Amino acid sequence: MAGFTMSLNLLLLVAMVATNILSLYHLSSTTNFFQSTLKSSPSSVPTVPDHLLRQLHTIRSAINHLTNHHHQQPDKSTSSSKDLLLYSKLSPIASSCHNHPDLLHHYMNYTPFSLCPSDSDLVEKLILRGCHPLPRRRCFSRTPPKDSSVIWSHFSCKNFDCLAAKFPGLGFDLSVDKSVSQFSSYKTELDLPITQLLKIAKSANSVLRLGIDVGGGTGAFAAAMKARNVTVVTTTMNFNAPYSEAVALRGLVPLHVPLQQRMPVFDGVVDLVRCGRAVNRWIPVTVMEFLLFDLDRVLRGGGYLWLDRFFSKKVDLENVYGPMIGKLGYKKVKWAVASKVDSKHGEVFLTALLQKPVSR
Questions:
Q1: pLDDT tens digits, one per residue of 247-259
Q2: For residue 36, how many other CB atoms are within 10 A of its CB?
Q3: Which of 9-18, 64-73, 277-286, 318-327 is the least confident region?
Q4: pLDDT at residue 35 in the model
Q5: Going by DSSP bridges, is the β-strand pair 299-313/347-355 parallel, antiparallel, or unpaired?
Q6: Across-strand partners of 336?
Q7: Is the Cβ–Cβ distance between 114 and 139 less than 8 Å?
Q8: Which residue from 190, 211, 253, 339 could staple onto 351, CB 3.0 to 4.6 Å apart?
């Protein structure tokens, strides 16, 4: 205990010294800049660089948090702080974790070598805020009872029948027939049946073996492709429902990663990427652009990017998202736009099948 207290005090001392050094650097650089500016242009006023302000804010927040953390909960939080500091030395954690010290403290506030807290909601909140990968913990994850595959205490529904009735269009009816039929019909120009997709690939001499379904919910598309001997992994999050568990119950692989996270896949090894309805205009524009270029990274030459019912305003599709997609330089195999049925602000859906160039 004494050793940890000394380590914590040393950490606070180092942080305070770093703060003072940054402050002196800022003041000196600002003074020099101000003097040179006055000589050249007396009317201009220097501004504080944003990156210095962010660094100072982060360091001061860390000092305040660690100080409060140390004084308010000396018993349990001391062990969790020790684990966080120890893990930070062993392996880096996402920088965004430090931007949410309260959530991070709550996540790391556990008893080592015992059951992990029941905090799945907290995990989702941290990941959504960019804290991914999360710090590892030395505790045992909670598992469902023998007669279940889900820890239902986290959710309002207590079985999949309830979820299927509450969310009829989200694929919680896990039967294979329902999954296949969802992607086998052609009712509107926005539909792209799997049979048509396979014919398009075959006619282009492009083999479909491995795919990623981004924001794939319960894994319905991956299940339908599995019936066609195509392996598809599904990225999903557990938003108020056990999406990851539903994917796993189909005998498929759920990837618990957010849309802003780099795909944990090597470059140029994927034949097909499908973006479901989770990829839409609610994603910040910059994040969307990075997502598209990361998907380009994992796609092989000649592979396909399928935007399935991308939702946005028509004016944004024409002025923002259309040009953004065009930067990829892909061939437009299918490009269908249809207005939302109950649209009040010019919302539209886009279904696009795009083929990556074989070489650039």
A1: 999 999 999 988 8
A2: 11
A3: 64-73
A4: 47
A5: antiparallel
A6: 351
A7: yes
A8: 190
